[in-house]
Every structure is written in structure tokens, then in C-alpha cells.
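User: My collaborator sent over this chain with a note saying "see what the structure looks like." That's all I know about it. Can you take a look?
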Amino acid sequence: MKPSESTAGRMSPDIMAQASEWLARRDAGFAPSEQADFDTWLAADPRHAVAATELGHAWTMLNRPRDLGRANHVLLELATRRERRGRRARGVAWAGLAAAAVLAMAVVPFGERSEAPDSETFPSTVTLRPMLQTLADGSLVQLNVGAEISVEFSAAQRAIKLVRGEAHFAVVKDPARPFVVSAGTLEVRAVGTEFAVRLAPEQVDVLVTEGKVAAASSVAPAASEPGVAQMLVPAGRRVVIPLADASVSGSRSEQVSPAQIDAALAWRGKHVEFTGTPLADAVTLFNRQNTLQLSFADPAHGKLRVSGVFWLDDPEGFARLLEASFSVKAVRVGPGAIAIQ
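Assistant: Without extra context I'll predict from the sequence alone. Here is the result:
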């Protein structure tokens, strides 16, 4: 679902509150029983999956300042803005914040032109998300925020280690060289398929979106506890395997609906992160990616600096957020153009 089609703003506040609580618990790391309860909640009402998907985007992006070590700067900027604009609004409910974040994610503008920081103090950066890596064999890996992998290819095997976080793999078929992802004590083996692996403190989650994979423990079980050597996970299923197991005998496998898959992989949405970026550079990037073109009625507006994470395929949402954050207006000047005045 694209941000412009978002239903978050119309969603029941109770559902939004429930979704935000579930995502907070998931961020801390689900126990196996909590994952089952979350899936039951998702299946109970179609609106639950919609809320979880949309808040999942916002949740991931609102964690970016913390993950980049910029939390103190963002908090300081927000405090300054709150003090400067305190008379306008004193409180925002989570549902309203989530709806705004879903529209164009989180933005921390650097104020008016006269307040723009020195470029050496806040250097401009532009980062496309999610991080995408093309491996030597042509396989694609998308990394969630904070995820890290190491790669070691040989003539016999394509080995990937998920050091931390979550990644989605689109594997090029090569029967002679299995594609093996290790996460903790788990190994996920595939030939040609698409799947996601998430390494949590106490478990590994594997979600298969195409083809099938074989999941097995890399730790041999004791002779008295033979367990299960491996389990096959086909497309449309998820398996949750506790790291404490020396086999996959304690795992839980379940069917997942398309809505549940969308919710679990919401972080893969195409977005861009700006840090102290001149608005002219940001607009140039949006214009390269979209038929709807943005322009400046006053070229001086291009010197404004902006930080935040935005949907790259929603230039109108980006323009409307600029309108709400700066002293500018976003005006339609034709069927395929918006002027920032």
C-alpha cells in the first residue's frame, strides 16, 4: 500500500494503539508464544494487518536517529521546534503521529534559510533504503536498519552469515553451490528462492516468500536427544526456531497470509534518507524517480536543508510535508507538476 493510499489516518485509535504496542514488543524480541499471539491478533481483523504494516514502516524509520547515533541531535532539534511553536499544538496522540509518519516518514527540517547550519557541522548525505547488496553470483540482499552480514563464496558453497538484524534474500539458482545463511545456531539452505531471516536475542525467524528452504541447526544434538535433522519450509510459511535448541525439534512452523507477509516485510518499502540535505538536491532525486515533478517558484527555497526519511515514490506527500514544516506552499501547477512557493 502506498502512503497516499494510507488508511492510518482513518484507523480506529484503539487498533492503532494495539498495533504500536505489538510493534514495541516485537522490536524488543518476541518469545515464541508472543509471536503466536501476534499472528492471532493479525488474523482477527483485516484492519490489524493494515495498521501493523503502516506503523511498521514508521516504526523502523523513527528508530533511524538512534541507530545512526544522531538521537541527541534530533531530540535537541525537536525541543527547539517545540519551544518555538509551542503555542500551535501542545500534544499529539500516537495515532496522529503514526499517520503523519506513514505519509512521509520522519522529518526534522533545519528551519528557515537564515537558520541553516554550517555544512561542515552537518554535512549533507543522501541514503537510499533499504540497503541493497548485489552479491558476486547476482543474488540480491536487502538489509533492514541495523542489519549486518558477512559473505564467503567458494567453489562448493555460497555462505552468508547474518551477524545481526534482519535481511531478505533473492537467490540466483545454482544447484552446484547451495546458498546457506547462518544466523546464530541456525542454517538456512536454498538453491533458488526468496526468503527473509531475522536474528532475535532468543530465536531465529525464517519467512519464505518464494520457493522453499531447508532449516537445520549447526550444532549437533546429543545422542540422547536426536531431535530433527532439518525441516523444509515452503513459500507462504514461517518458522520460528529457538536458539537454545541443538536441533530444530522445538521450532514452530505456520502458514502466513499475504497480509501477514506484507506486515512482516513492510521495512522493504522504497524510501530515501536525507541528512542536512539542501532541498534542491532532494527535489532533484525525487524528480529522477517520478513522473510528478517538483519545482521552486523561488530558487532560494532550494537552499533549505532537510533531514528525515521519506517515501521515494510519493513526491506529493514529500511536498505536503515541506508545506507543513517550512514557510512554503505546495501548489499544483499542472497534471504532472507541483511548485514549491
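A starting point for your reply to your collaborator: The first helix runs from residue 13 to 28.
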